[in-house]
């Protein structure tokens, strides 16, 4: 499992390098974390996020990036204190997958959740201020 992860990471890294090198203006999905991301969350390795608490700056257009460091599918749902899912659910299917979306995030405390069945342990706190 660990070897597969390292191999997949190396291939993804090479692909990103090759894409950057050729400089084509393709509009394919983001291959790397955007420099202006207001929040970056990694899934795994294992059934967990990379941190138990995250912070972000409040705004109406906060860019959130979610990258998979695990071999299985994970989601990222931003849940407000009243249990409402904010905006789009991000989903990453395999190691190296990256999804990015923007969110309206007023100041407050949120929960980050992976809603894949059996992943109830994938919970983290997001403090937006
Ligand atoms: Cu998960």
Descriptive overview:
The protein has about 130 residues and is of the alpha/beta class. The chain has one domain (about 1-129): Cupredoxins -  blue copper proteins (Immunoglobulin-like). Helix content is about 15%, strand content about 40%. It has one helix and eight strands; from the N terminus they run αββββββββ. Strands 2-8-7-4-5 form a five-stranded mixed β-sheet, with no helix packed on it. β4 (about 75-80) and β5 (about 85-90) form a beta hairpin. The termini are far apart. The model is unreliable at about 5-30 (pLDDT under 50). Copper (II) ion binds near residues 43, 47, 74, 114 and 122.
Q: Main beta sheet, described?
A: 5 strands, mixed
Strand element count = 8
Name the poorly predicted regions: 5-28
Supply the number of helical segments. Answer: 1
User: What fraction of the residues are assigned to beta strands by DSSP?
Assistant: 35-45%
**First and last CA, distance:** 38 Å
Task: Using the coordinates shown, work out and report the CATH topology.
Answer: Immunoglobulin-like
CATH C-level class is Mainly Beta
How do the helices and strands follow one another from N- to C-terminus? HEEEEEEEE
Major beta sheet, strand line-up: 2-8-7-4-5
Give the number of domains.
Answer: 1
Ligands bound here? copper (II) ion
Please compute the radius of gyration using only Cα atoms: 15 Å
CATH H-level superfamily title: Cupredoxins -  blue copper proteins
Structural class: alpha/beta
Helix content: 10-25%
Given the C-alpha coordinates, what overall shape results? Answer: globular
CATH architect. name: Sandwich
Mean pLDDT over the full residue set: 85
């Amino acid at each position: 499992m660990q070897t597969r992860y390292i191999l997949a990471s190396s291939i993804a890294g090479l692909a990103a390098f090759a894409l950057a090198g050729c400089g084509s203006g393709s509009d394919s999905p983001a291959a790397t974390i955007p420099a202006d991301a207001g929040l970056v969350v990694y899934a795994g390795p294992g059934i967990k996020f990379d941190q138990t608490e995250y912070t972000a700056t409040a705004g109406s257009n906060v860019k959130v990036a979610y990258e998979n460091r695990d071999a299985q599918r994970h989601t990222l749902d931003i849940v407000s204190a009243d249990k409402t899912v904010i905006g789009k659910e991000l989903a990453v299917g395999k190691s190296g997958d990256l999804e990015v979306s923007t969110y309206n995030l007023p100041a407050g405390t949120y929960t980050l959740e992976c809603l894949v069945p059996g992943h109830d342990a994938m919970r983290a706190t997001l403090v937006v201020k």
